[in-house]
Amino acid sequence: MKNAKELMSLTLKIFEMGDVCDVCLGRQFARVIRAADNSERGMKIRAMIAKEGHAQPAGHKDATCPLCENTIAGIAASASNIVKKIKPAGFSTFMIGVRMSDSLVMKEEALWGKTGIKYCEPLKAEIARELGKIIAQKTGKKQDNEHPDIIITFDVHKMAAEIFYNSLFIYGEYKKLARGLPQTSSRQFKDSVEDIIARPLMKAAKAGGHVLHAQGREDRDARCLAWRPFIVEMKQPLKRSLLLRSVESAINKSSKIKVARLRLSTRKKVAELKAQNPFKVYRVVVDFEEPVEKPERLKGIVGAIKQRTPNRILGAKPDKTKHKKVKSIKWKRINTKRYQFDITAESGLYLQELITGDGGRTKPSVSQLLENQAHTKEFDLIGIKKG
Length: 387
Known about the structure:
ten-stranded mixed sheet, four-stranded mixed sheet, alpha+beta, Alpha-Beta Plaits
């Protein structure tokens, strides 16, 4: 501040608003007057004004501050109510957000029109800081504005808070041992890989919902005999400290899937998991309409594969063309019309169409190379390899 005269002038303009509380008075000079907090800063200013003989608002016991409408005076009680609300939740970090009322915003802006904002701290910042300080003291938890476990949004008009519980992420790997089981939840099917994994986690975390993020997906009628990485997202969890070994044991009571290596993860890891593009090893049992001749022609499947969106999902997905790679193929004769193939291919390849050709929408295909219409009897994912 340039000098005491400027402080006097600004303070007298503030006093024109009425019985301003010590905190709101101190806030206007937060950047230039040293003090433990804004309340002490306000008292210092009052003492300086009194020493100079300037008049101050008379004030009375039940006066309402024209700038905060006594919101500041109610912060301690509001913080205690918030602590009661969040105490049952298992969390380590929190963030404070403040939703201001229109009337307080307008009053603050009216004052700034007279005094400027060069030295002040906004009311919103004061409320957020003081709430955070009290909540941290009462709970022993830390504020974290980057990755909080819970977000507390304080509504100044209602003098009440809404609590948002950030998602909890659990990494693991699964094997799917049963056919006819979709990977993700669907109204069409009673159960899914996601549901079987999520049920014990939902109970342990007291969560409100779940989403499975997996590294690719297998067909509903295919088994997944390799360990497929996944991250399950628990939405609105009231508990974050989980006994994951116990959860793992509960999931593995199912005869349909098995899980391993459960551990805590993050939203960032979900994106990393989705970005990976490993090669998959499939074991496919194929029936042919005619006896197979010259199976060595199957070597021509290795390389780039051009695939249009399969007829079986056309409509649900747009008609697009994509290119995927087949890295290798091995075959085993079961009888003249039945073969077993081990195919290593890039993630995202439509495997059934690689076999059938899908009426020419996939080229090359097993049917095309052998000049013999092939039909997939069953297939399994048996390996996941880095590309």
